[in-house]
Write a structure and sequence with these properties.
- This protein has 225 residues and is mostly helical.
- It has a domain of 157 residues.
- The radius of gyration is 28 Å and the shape is rod-shaped.
- Part of the Tol-Pal system, which plays a role in outer membrane invagination during cell division and is important for maintaining outer membrane integrity.
Length: 225
């Protein structure tokens, strides 16, 4: 009963050396921060995906472009990445189309540049803080391993003051050291899984947006003929 109490997770953390406790505290803080961004980015990417699907249905349903542009401009914050790309492209198209002396290629290229700039901002916003998750996934196990190595070193150093070393002398020190590795893996695994999934989702949205920009440019070009 005594051994079980001494080797509980909480007691191992509280009785660990100062360096190991600092490592554990750092990993716990990083883990909480990564979970915050996992949930936040998950909601943002899901919202962008749903808004993109809604706008695609409206656009390809044969809606009037001018009316769709007005509605998108009024609800720009909820239009999603694709809606804002459309709004930027059609706004630039309308502005350039009203100017005299411009060729059709100049108008289309200007519209494409506006859409491309908005597209880049949208993708950058979706990818923001994903690099943090990647760093947590790659670095946390090594930070935990550092705490483990340090704890095991202290455990064996403590044996120098013991005449007859037994497993009961070294087990608590090794156990508290291994907790650091466990916390490191607890921080790293969800971050890696979330990063891989979110990058894949952002790539899919990026492809959809790029395809839309090409198709929309062709539609605008036909209107100039």
């Amino acid at each position: 009963m005594t051994v079980s109490q001494d080797l509980s997770i909480l007691s191992l953390i509280l009785e660990a050396s100062l360096v190991v406790q600092i490592v554990m505290g750092l990993l716990m803080a990083v883990s909480l921060t990564s979970w915050y961004w996992i949930f936040r980015k998950g909601l943002a990417i899901r919202g962008a995906r749903e808004a993109t699907g809604t706008f695609e249905q409206q656009f390809w349903s044969g809606s009037d472009l001018v009316q769709l542009f007005r509605e998108t401009s009024l609800h720009r914050d909820n239009a999603g990445p694709l809606g804002r790309i459309f709004e930027a492209g059609f706004r630039e198209f309308s502005k350039l189309h009203g100017q005299k002396g411009l060729e059709a290629s100049d108008i289309i290229n200007g519209s494409r540049r506006a859409m491309r700039a908005t597209f880049q901002r949208e993708i950058d916003d979706l990818e923001a803080h994903l690099a943090f998750l990647a760093s947590v996934g790659s670095v946390s196990p090594y930070v935990g391993l550092f705490g483990t190595v340090w704890g095991i070193m202290n455990a064996f150093r403590g044996l120098s003051n013991v005449s007859a070393a037994t497993l009961s002398h070294v087990a608590p020190g090794i156990a508290e050291a291994l907790v650091a590795t466990a916390i490191g893996l607890f921080a790293a695994i969800p971050a890696v899984v979330a990063y891989n999934r979110y990058i894949h989702e952002v790539d899919r949205l990026s492809i959809r947006c790029e395809s839309f920009m090409e198709e929309f440019s062709n539609i605008l070009q036909r209107q100039l003929r």
